[in-house]
């Protein structure tokens, strides 16, 4: 049960964390009201459990107005004790208090993960109402790049970590010398926050990269153009993220304007050879304090105006590319020091190369989806890593996921309205979860939240995303994608194959039925078989008579399970079809059933789908019980009336 507490900050009630599109009514109402209206209606908006008086009093003590700290000053002792509750024992999974430099959306989601483990997270951020403020154990208001402030903040935590790498690395080095536990290490932060030093570091460790060189003046920039050709990617060494600090020069004439756009050579610039990538990939790598390492599945990132817009998990690439990308990411992180989450952004080129783009030493936008799609989210994983708990399982618990960033479409209230309209549509999408960061100010292209959609296949989650964006609907309803494809070489096979369709309809499994001839429409067969899994098909039932080439040809073109149904033809009674299907060469498996028994093909498809679908498993169990009861009823009838009456009743 949730309630509203009257003394808390005005913006926290707007936070939405929705699982399967189910919202607490209070949070739902708050989330769909524009910010200024929310502030007036919900003058207090922290939600807390009401079934524990001790928990309520903890909330009142710990999440009062954040303590503001000016650079180089100390906190008032009375305010400090009320905000920190230093004398209270810690009873979470770890007694280490985690201090986070930065209190943005990443810090917010760290706090959410920490609450599940009862780990205390305190944040340092200059904004009084930063996204993490309302959820943190304690929020110190101050600059995370100010040395005195960071040193004072460090006194309050057992381990110091970051949600943004643009902090004072020299201060972290000083703190480490004083015995403060910083994770990841200050040396890693120093390398990562300067993108040129980052390139130099990874180059020394033989990590594949686009070619690069430092530029200090127009002559060196022109030299880079001669060496690398155009277009050239010009980048700022520091304070570059979300597309900021990047400029493209398409010719020598554009060099000066591109450099000026970045603030001139004095800002510190370098050039990268243009990477002709076909996809941008990312791998989240986690290293524990014991040097254990786990890697999340490779994802594809799609950017809009240089800002991450969509993340697809898993990436639509071959297993070989996934393995190569994971290996590059692992080697890159292995060259750095410290525990925590590292996001490794990569380029995939047309010739199959993997090139490292950059690394972030913290949770990352490309890992947001892990909250819903993986057994252990990147945020929980980061906390486990920095405090020394065993690392969790990074594998996906859903077959497919898409993360969609909610970026500001307009300034101010119009922007809030558009975002809330999108959220409203997301609430009607199966498998969708909404995260609203509760930022008080809306700006164009600002990251305001994200939506993750999980589903049984990549095709399904893509269709759900299109529906959410109003790009694909059927009669006003979300399009239902088929899970099973029933194909046959001729319409003469349909009287047999219809039995599979009937079974699948009985189990409410969406199905498509197509005529696909291996001999008369070979191009269509290749297209159908190779694209089926990307469209969301999970099982293919292929009926064929005579030579029965269709099931085997399709099985050779798709990673999906294929069930062949031998159809009785005018000669050989279907034996030729059966023998053709079962004698596929090694490496091309095709399941089969009895001649003309499409019913069993449908039932086998249901059982295959039921491996990941508890509803279908339960319904299949009920189907078996119903068949048993039918047989028992027939036996009782035979015993009671005798065989003659039984036979007469069947006429």
Automatic annotation (TrEMBL):
EC number(s) on file: 4.1.1.21
InterPro entries assigned to the protein according to its UniProt record, in alphabetical order: Ade2_fungi/plant, ATP-grasp, ATP-grasp_carboxylate-amine, ATP_grasp_subdomain_1, PreATP-grasp_dom_sf, PurE_ClassI, PurE_dom, PurK
Pfam families the UniProt entry points to: AIRC, ATP-grasp, PurK_C, RS_preATP-grasp-like
According to UniProt, the reaction catalysed is:
5-amino-1-(5-phospho-D-ribosyl)imidazole-4-carboxylate + H(+) = 5-amino-1-(5-phospho-beta-D-ribosyl)imidazole + CO2
What are the entry keywords? ATP-binding, Decarboxylase, Lyase, Nucleotide-binding, Purine biosynthesis
Q: Where is the ATP-grasp domain?
A: 199-387
- Gene3D superfamilies per record: 3.40.50.1970, 3.40.50.20, ATP-grasp fold, A domain (3.30.1490.20), ATP-grasp fold, B domain (3.30.470.20)
What parts of the sequence cross the membrane?
Answer: none
Pathway field of the UniProt record reads: Purine metabolism; IMP biosynthesis via de novo pathway; 5-amino-1-(5-phospho-D-ribosyl)imidazole-4-carboxylate from 5-amino-1-(5-phospho-D-ribosyl)imidazole (carboxylase route): step 1/1
List, alphabetically, the PANTHER family matched.
PHOSPHORIBOSYLAMINOIMIDAZOLE CARBOXYLASE (PTHR11609:SF5), PURINE BIOSYNTHESIS PROTEIN 6/7, PUR6/7 (PTHR11609)
Which HAMAP family does UniProt cross-reference here?
PurE_classI, PurK
Say which family it is in: In the C-terminal section; belongs to the AIR carboxylase family. Class I subfamily.
Name the UniProt record assigns to this protein: phosphoribosylaminoimidazole carboxylase
Q: What species was this sequence derived from?
A: Coffea arabica
Q: Which gene encodes it?
A: LOC113730620
């Amino acid at each position: 049960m949730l309630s509203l507490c009257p003394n808390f900050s005005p913006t926290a009630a707007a936070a939405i964390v929705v699982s399967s599109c189910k919202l607490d009514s209070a949070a739902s109402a708050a989330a769909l009201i524009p910010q200024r209206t929310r502030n007036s209606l919900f003058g207090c908006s922290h939600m807390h459990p009401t079934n524990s008086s001790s928990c309520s009093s903890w909330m009142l003590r710990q999440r009062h107005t954040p303590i503001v700290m000016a650079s180089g000053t100390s906190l008032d002792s009375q305010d400090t004790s009320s905000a920190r509750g230093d004398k209270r024992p810690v009873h979470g999974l770890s007694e280490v208090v985690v201090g986070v430099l930065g209190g943005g959306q990443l810090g917010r989601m760290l706090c959410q993960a920490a609450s599940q483990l009862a780990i205390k997270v305190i944040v340092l951020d200059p904004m009084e109402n930063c996204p993490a403020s309302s959820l943190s154990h304690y929020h110190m208001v101050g600059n995370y790049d100010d040395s005195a402030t960071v040193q004072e903040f460090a006194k309050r935590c057992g381990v110091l970590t970051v949600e943004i790498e643009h902090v004072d690395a020299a201060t972290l080095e000083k703190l480490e010398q004083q015995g403060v536990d910083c994770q990841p290490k200050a040396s890693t932060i120093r390398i990562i926050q300067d993108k040129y030093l980052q390139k130099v570091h990874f180059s020394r460790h033989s990590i594949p990269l686009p070619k690069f060189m430092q530029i200090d003046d127009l002559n060196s920039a022109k030299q880079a153009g001669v060496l690398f050709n155009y277009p050239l990617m010009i980048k700022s060494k520091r304070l570059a993220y979300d597309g900021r600090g990047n400029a493209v020069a398409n010719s020598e004439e554009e060099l000066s304007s591109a450099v000026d756009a970045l603030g001139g050579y004095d800002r510190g610039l370098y050039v990268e050879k243009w990477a002709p990538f076909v996809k941008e990939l990312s791998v989240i790598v986690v290293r524990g304090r014991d040097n254990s390492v786990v890697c999340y599945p490779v994802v594809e990132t799609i950017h809009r105006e240089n800002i991450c817009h969509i993340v697809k998990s898993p990436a639509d690439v071959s297993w070989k590319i996934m393995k190569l990308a994971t290996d590059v990411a692992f080697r890159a992180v292995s060259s750095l020091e410290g525990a925590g989450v590292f996001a490794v952004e990569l380029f995939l080129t047309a010739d199959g190369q993997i090139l490292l783009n950059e690394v972030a030493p913290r949770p990352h936008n490309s890992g947001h989806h892990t909250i819903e799609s993986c057994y252990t989210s990147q945020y929980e994983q980061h906390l486990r890593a920095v405090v020394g708990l065993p690392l969790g399982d990074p594998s996906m618990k859903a077959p497919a996921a898409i993360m969609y960033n909610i970026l500001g479409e307009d300034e101010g209230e119009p922007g809030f309205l558009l975002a809330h309209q999108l959220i409203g549509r997301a609430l009607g999408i199966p498998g969708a979860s909404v995260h609203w960061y509760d930022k008080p100010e809306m700006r164009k292209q600002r990251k305001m939240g994200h939506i993750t959609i999980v589903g049984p296949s990549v095709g399904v989650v893509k269709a759900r995303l299109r529906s959410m964006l109003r790009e694909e609907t059927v009669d006003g309803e979300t399009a239902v994608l088929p899970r099973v494809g029933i194909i046959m070489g001729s319409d003469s096979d349909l009287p047999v194959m219809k039995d599979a369709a009937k079974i699948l309809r009985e189990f409410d499994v969406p199905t498509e039925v197509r005529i696909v001839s291996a001999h008369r429409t070979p191009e269509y067969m290749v297209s159908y078989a190779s694209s089926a899994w990307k469209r969301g098909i999970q099982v293919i039932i292929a009926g064929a008579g005579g030579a029965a080439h269709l099931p085997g040809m399709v099985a050779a073109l798709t990673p999906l399970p294929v069930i062949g149904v031998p159809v009785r033809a005018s000669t050989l009674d279907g034996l030729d079809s059966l023998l053709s299907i079962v004698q596929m060469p090694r490496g091309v498996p095709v399941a089969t059933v009895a001649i003309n028994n499409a019913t069993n093909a449908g039932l086998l498809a249901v059982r295959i789908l039921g491996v990941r679908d508890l509803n279908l498993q339960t319904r299949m169990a009920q189907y078996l019980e119903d068949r048993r009861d039918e047989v028992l009823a027939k036996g009782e009838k035979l015993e009671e009336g005798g065989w003659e009456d039984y036979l007469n009743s069947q006429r």
